[in-house]
């Protein structure tokens, strides 16, 4: 039996999955250190993701050492990882991650990158191989499904890539860790959603002290 | 002891508290009947508020008759009403409601309307009296606090009025009934929020089968 197609992201209460783009105010390392917007950007990012950093699974998966919290937040982070047989991501998420991920990238499965660049598969230690797909979201999904086997395909991000799959009717369900923070600006997860076509069915709503974990199934209207 | 200042609204998962404005496509009754956008608007509005219509409290408060659901959704609707000693609302919410509320308006307390129009207090059967305030949000809040006594002041809406009070640091806490629907367009609750000044502290997160009820305390940064 084929798995599901899902996404799982952290979202601010006002609907953002990333703070305002840093493009344009981070041209040089000196500018980075001096620009107060960076501190604001970092604080927003940390508050958005605050629920996951202390978790045992997060520490394990990034080889940050022993310990960490266990409980609902940890279980949810671990389950999102364990159900995933392959991931799909947009070009910009990949390019940012290429700079930021440790050598042992945290996916440990095949990852299909939507891009116009042609590039040979890039194999990382620990089981992550990035495949570069030049012929669109359906092709990437076909390849990701084949690679995932019976496990699920995760649309990893960013927001635009998630929305492309959602509006195309290709997402079965999704989870949001709703964080107690307001951004005011940034990348909105659902900006441009085709509300005339996408209906939601609540599956679970699980509060922790750090976030409210919401799961919805997607239904056509 | 003075009460708290709060708001309590239903919000779509993508952050909207009202569908796209109908202004401009509802000029005449004939246009209303023929314009397919009205059906879409009504469906969005009904889905946003779907959690409250079946509740016993809602039926009681609008004199719709006996019966109705009891449980978490009903308790939450009733508590929001019972804690409220007075309300504040913007001009547009009042003008819409003036046409739509039954003669026995559903507030049953003093209501302070922010407006530039001068008008004598308007007393309705059932205990609601609308007072028209011409000198700003602080004056309206002073009057609403005095009228509320030991009970709380509710910023009833619309979204712009709520945001004025939130950005002015005058809101103590708020509740959101997060409904399982995506709007794509409309009035965003937090559009223009001053994220550099407003911090949130999670108070409660209570899921029902119809909505997720979120409560946050507002803290200055």
Strand order of the largest sheet of chain A: 5-6-4-3-7-1-8-11-10
- SS class of chain A: alpha/beta
Helix content of chain A: 25-40%
Q: Please outline the major beta sheet of chain A.
A: 9 strands, mixed
Distance between the termini of chain A: 25 Å
Relative strand content of chain A: 25-35%
Total strands of chain A: 11
Radius of gyration of chain A: 17 Å
Query: Can you write the helix and strand succession of chain A as a string?
Result: EEHHHHEHEEEHEHEEEE
Please identify the oligomeric state: homodimer
Ordered list of secondary-structure elements with their pairings:
Two copies of one chain form a homodimer.
Chain A: E1 5-12, E2 16-18, H1 29-34, H2 36-49, H3 56-61, H4 72-82, E3 84-90, H5 91-100, E4 110-114, E5 122-123, E6 129-133, H6 137-148, E7 152-157, H7 159-167, E8 173-179, E9 187-188, E10 198-207, E11 212-220
Parallel strand pairs in A: 1-7, 1-8, 3-4, 3-7, 4-6
Antiparallel strand pairs in A: 2-9, 5-6, 8-11, 10-11
